[in-house]
Amino acid sequence: MTSNSDAARLLGTRIREERQRFAINQMELAELAGLHFTNLGKIERGQANPSLHTILRIAGALNLNPAVLIDGMTPDMLPDRPHKVTVADLIRARENGGTA
């Protein structure tokens, strides 16, 4: 599945920068993370939406806290977000006798 969201591009950029900081190639990082190098390439290009397990594997291989990879990301960075209402909006609406 092609992602091409701002979040996917930012994640991929962060992973690529960390990989390059260690001067290793995609095949080496993929091997360390237990992934196929073509999948890692798609992630780095922002063309894939990796699972939580995959993000954790990559972070572990980079000896990195996974929070670093997603720091500052927001739901607004996702395409076609189904709801812009948050739980705070819902509670406020309920307290005011309406709906969100």
UniProtKB/TrEMBL annotation:
InterPro entries, per database record: Cro/C1-type_HTH, Lambda_DNA-bd_dom_sf, TransReg_Diox_bact_type
Keyword Lipid biosynthesis: no
Pfam families referenced in this protein's UniProt entry, alphabetically: HTH_3 (PF01381)
Keywords: DNA-binding
Limits of the HTH cro/C1-type domain: 15-69
SMART domains reported in the protein's UniProt record: HTH_XRE
Matching PANTHER family: HTH-TYPE TRANSCRIPTIONAL REGULATOR (PTHR46797), METHYLPHOSPHONATE SYNTHASE (PTHR46797:SF1)
Protein name: Helix-turn-helix domain-containing protein
